[in-house]
Amino acid sequence: MIEKIISLALKNRIVVLTICAGLFAWGIYSIQQNPIDAIPDLSENQVIVYTEWMGRSPQIMEDQITYPLVSNLQGIPGLKNIRGSSMFGMSFVYLIFDDNVDIYWARTRVLERLNYAQRLLPENVVPTLGPDGTGVGHIFWYTLDADGYDLGELRALQDWYIKFALQTVPGVSEVASFGGFQKQYQIVIDPDKLVYYDVSLKDVLRAIRSNNNDVGGGKYELSDMGYVVRGLGYIKNISDIENIAIRSDNSIPVRIKDIATVQMGGEPRVGIFDQNGEGEVVGGIVVMRYGENADNVIAAVKEKMKDVEKGLPPGITFHTAYDRSGLIEDAIGSVKRTLVEEMIAVSLIVLMFLFHWRSALIILIQMPIAIAVAFILLQAFGISSNIMSLTGIALAIGVIVDDGIVMVENSYRHISEHQENDS
């Protein structure tokens, strides 16, 4: 069988060379299209369901949130395993799917089940899906360097400007904010004044909720002109809250400021984000989508950050805390150098021992074609170009060369025996 294949290849050299050239060109294309990362993504094919119900104990979260969700999310096609975790005010459900299941199909099926399961949850509790990223999707971290700005202002800038701008970058699944204080209006109620004015806490909550709203008043026509009537009632500052009327006593309104103190503060935190022991900072974590090219996404994020920085207030700049592109470039560059060094060393050794450039060419031409075919297979099976896959290719070069040397030496032996028999 092998003799027939060799004979067929020798009789159709042009066809064989054309096929090799086609494979090499296909391999070059696969190299350009194949995702590049420093480390292989070995994380499970999972969908995360996150539910927040602040102020509740882990036991309540387990009984009223996690258990109903886990019970009703079972039975999804392709689901391999499901795990639940409950903590103070938060619930996490991890759905592990088979590796051959498309992640976005899985997320769609989970959403379908959540529409049914949500009716079993307490009122105003809405479960949400986590980002469509993997365990190694945190590719870029940044912080905000600023002088003269408090942590609340920086967090508001991150949440309402920077985050939304960076999420528009192709390949970015989420930009998670960290550090600082999330601003909020805080109403500190005096219990004694509630009793004095005969006001309940429910009355206070209802008054604040109903007075923080815009309403429509229809359309008014006058002199062939139409005017849209609406009531503007959104709270804009502390004084707006202080002047909200809760009830009236003998035609005298009881306002929020009569029974409470209103202030601007930060949301309670369970931790801080410190940078190099120099104090708290505010920043974000860029999470990459499934199957994206990490190197290209990081480059696009950096380019976007240059545009975003132009719109920042004076004195605020970006500081890179973690950038995987450096690790990617170093890892890929190291493997590339190893490949080139191996090819040069093998070329010299073959030329030294065979003293025949055509024989050396036969051996050396196998390496780029074999590497090209390897990248074709990497692209076909969805495996990224990382330090492990490239190192495997580098190690395989020795096997490729050994095979070529054995074949050439064996050919020389057969030619020599044939010449001796003829003489």
Descriptive overview:
The protein is built from 14 helices and 14 strands. The protein is of the alpha+beta class. It folds into 4 domains: 2-33 and 328-422, Multidrug efflux transporter AcrB transmembrane fold (Up-down Bundle), CATH 1.20.1640; 40-130, Multidrug efflux transporter AcrB pore domain (Alpha-Beta Plaits); 135-182 and 267-315, Multidrug efflux transporter AcrB pore domain like (Alpha-Beta Plaits, 2-Layer Sandwich), CATH 3.30.70; 189-259, 2-Layer Sandwich (Multidrug efflux transporter AcrB TolC docking domain, DN and DC subdomains), CATH 3.30.2090. A hairpin with a 2-residue loop joins β2 and β3. α11 (324-354) runs antiparallel to α12. It is elongated, with a radius of gyration of 33 Å. The mean pLDDT is 85.
What is the structure about, briefly put?
This protein has 423 residues and is an alpha+beta fold. It is built from 14 helices and 14 strands.
What percent of residues adopt helix (DSSP H or I)? 40-55%
Q: Looking at the structure, what is the overall shape? A: elongated
**How much of the polypeptide forms β-strand, as a percent range?**
15-25%
Spell the H/E element sequence. Answer: HHEHEEHEEHEEHHEEHEEHEEHEHHHH
* Annotated CATH topology of the largest domain: Multidrug efflux transporter AcrB transmembrane fold
**Taking Cα atoms only, what radius of gyration do you get, to the nearest Å?**
33 Å
Major beta sheet summary: 4 strands, antiparallel
- How many helical stretches? 14
What is the total domain count? 4
Low-confidence stretches are none
Q: What structural category do the secondary elements indicate?
A: alpha+beta
* CATH C-level of the largest domain: Mainly Alpha
If you average the pLDDT, what whole number results? 85
Strand order of the largest sheet: 2-3-1-4
N- and C-termini, Cα separation = 30 Å
What do we call the CATH homologous superfamily of the largest domain?
Answer: Multidrug efflux transporter AcrB transmembrane domain
